[in-house]
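Field: COMPLEX_INPUT
Field: COMPONENT_COUNT = two
Field: RESIDUE_TOTAL = 797
Field: MODE = joint
Values follow.
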Amino acid sequence: MERTLTRYIRALRSAGAGVSTTEAMDAARTVDVVGWADRGVLKTALGTVLAKSVEEKAIHDQLFELYFSREAASAAASEGQPGEAGDPDTGRPGEGETGADPQSGDAEGAEGGEGGEGGEGGDPVEALSALAQGKNPGQLAMALERAGAAAGVDEIRFATQSGYFVRKMMESMGVEALEARLMEALTRRNAEGEAEAEGLIATRSALQKQARAFVEARFEIYGKSAQDAFMNEILAERSFGALGRSDTERMRGLVERMAKRLAVRHARRRKVRDRGRLDVRRTLRANAGHDGVPFDIIWKIKRKDRPKIVAVCDVSGSVAQYVRFLLLFLHALKEKVTDLETFAFSAHLADVSRPLETLPFETAMRAIVDEVGSGGTDYGAAFLELDRDFGEVIDRRTTVLVLGDGRSNYSNPRLDVFKQIADQAKRLVWLCPEPATNWGSGDSCLLEYRPFCTLLTQCSTVTDLERALDEILMAYD
Amino acid sequence: MTDGAMQKETPAGLASVEAVTQMLAGTGYIATPEIATAVYLAHHLRKPVLIEGPAGVGKTDLARSVAIGLEQPLIRMQCYEGLDESKALYEWKYGKQLLYTQILKDKIGHLVEDADSLDEALHKLTGFQDIFFSRDFLEPRPLLKAMEQSTGSVLLIDEIDKSDEEFEALLLEVLSDYQVTVPEIGTIAAQVPPLVVLTSNATRELGDALKRRCLHLHIDFPNADLEARIVRTRVPEVTERLLERLVDFVQAVRGENIRKLPSISETIDWARTLILLHADSLDPALVRSTLNVILKRQSDIAEVAGKVEALLSGGDKAGR
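Field: COMPLEX_OUTPUT
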């Protein structure tokens, strides 16, 4: 059964749960200890050994059900096989040979089974129709398993590939012989021929249905997460502005995952050793044993600041979509890494940290837009209000993060106030959804603000967003 | 594998998953299959168990119950920021060393008296030198102490997420090889590997290296059935009627949007409180006046107090 386990681990990996070699070995030892007999115990035991977080546990639980339900079926099937009973492992994956010569291999397999049942003759087409009638479900599962292995169904990555794999499976089960017979029956053009053809077509479609179900089950195990990963990859590079409604949900998941990754990266290393400053007290204490002679020198450890971010977001129509994801991202980070104050503005500015904290995200966003009002965006007024009303939240440890296109409807950009904010803060980062070529065109005052920014960068995809936030957090490491 | 030698005697309580469940039940700890399996595997694979989950669901209690069940000493190490090896592994007994130096000073004249040359005197002294860095002067801290137990032990490393990352690295040797290295003496290997339980409230993400060395067990809030069983075990004097109502209420409260969810220890406290108040059922006024037992934040109390009636009737429905 070792092979069963390694394949299960492979399935886990393709589902995105990292399983290291050590863990795989532990899993094998676990199976030695608990045995295969009790499915429930096996499931919890493997879950304990293989999963390292709640998310991985969930993946494991789901996959275990998918995977071992078919394992159980095929093991039962091979046990029903005469001559091979007692060792399900050798019975099931005979795919090496079957792959080389699928047709004869399968015909033989089917025949052998039939022989055990009472014998029906050596015709492969007969064997197929016997299979299709489902008299012996074990036999059918067995044949499907073999055909699946021969067709390489485990390699499936996309739902659209299933037609191809179904056909390959059918071929490896020997459907070509059946089709040849069908053609022949049809060309006979008589009642007998038609009756036979009808029977053959029924057999064929029954088999096809089985094969399709099999391929779909395999897709659930091996392919779905790969397809998921692929979709995520595409989405990560797509501009927020071009997102469809259906992408939003997926994007939220993606943002959460990225935020988690960032959080892990930056939550560590909160400390640096500041060599050069002696910790007298601890040195004396540590060297008391040496009669006060300082053999071991102990240096002071300097704690790093917790990242503090003040986000100032333009929520007017043109950038609203981008703001959603920035806020989602920051919000996901907040738990782990940062002190976060959020301000939203359009015509005027408001502190929106509280609604974001207390309300569900979507409701909060709607409330924010309602409160700040659409109206003409005025960056100058927003910075003025920020400096006047909330100036104290910005100190020398704060990164001010502005998200907006800098299109201020030709109002006064108030560069003096902006400069003051920039001077007060540790860093000032401006994320702009527009490409650099558009900066400064029309009513955009980005180029005027630019000299005061520590960093001004285009940010239109979630990858940009991750990079920018990584950069911001790096300044605190 | 040396497993055979290392585990020549498996305690009866660890013979099978059911045996673990029973052993824990004997100490008043109701274990889910996940918990029992984790303990069972921890012994048989010789791996530490890392328990994560919200506060108050019985993470620390599990270690205590296993220790009681196995009749082994529980060695507990509470983690905190700044915990270092001198507090976790071992420390030299400086005072004793100093004292001995003083005594030796007087004796040293005697010792080298009959030595003819400086070389000979030095030779005589080197024989005594290592005395100061021997086991006699070693103060074992929890980790070393756990290694030294000849009967085996349960080592509880509590709230590992509160410690620094450096400390995590320090643990790696202890957790994978069950040994402690003291540079002056050498490596001290465990006589019987302790059963190690680490708990974490997930205030920070633990390092991968540590996670990979552990079995992972997540204990979540129990479902109504399990919670009722736990409360019944811990507070046997509670009536069935009250138990059902209060468990339903707590379960309903967990569905609310509050900051700090009540956990099983709060349910137990609440049951005890209600018994002290001679309550045999729940009514809104009683619930309101005792909400502070299960909710620890003023804003949460305010939130729930406004919904007591709805939660009570909702809980009632679920109970039926």
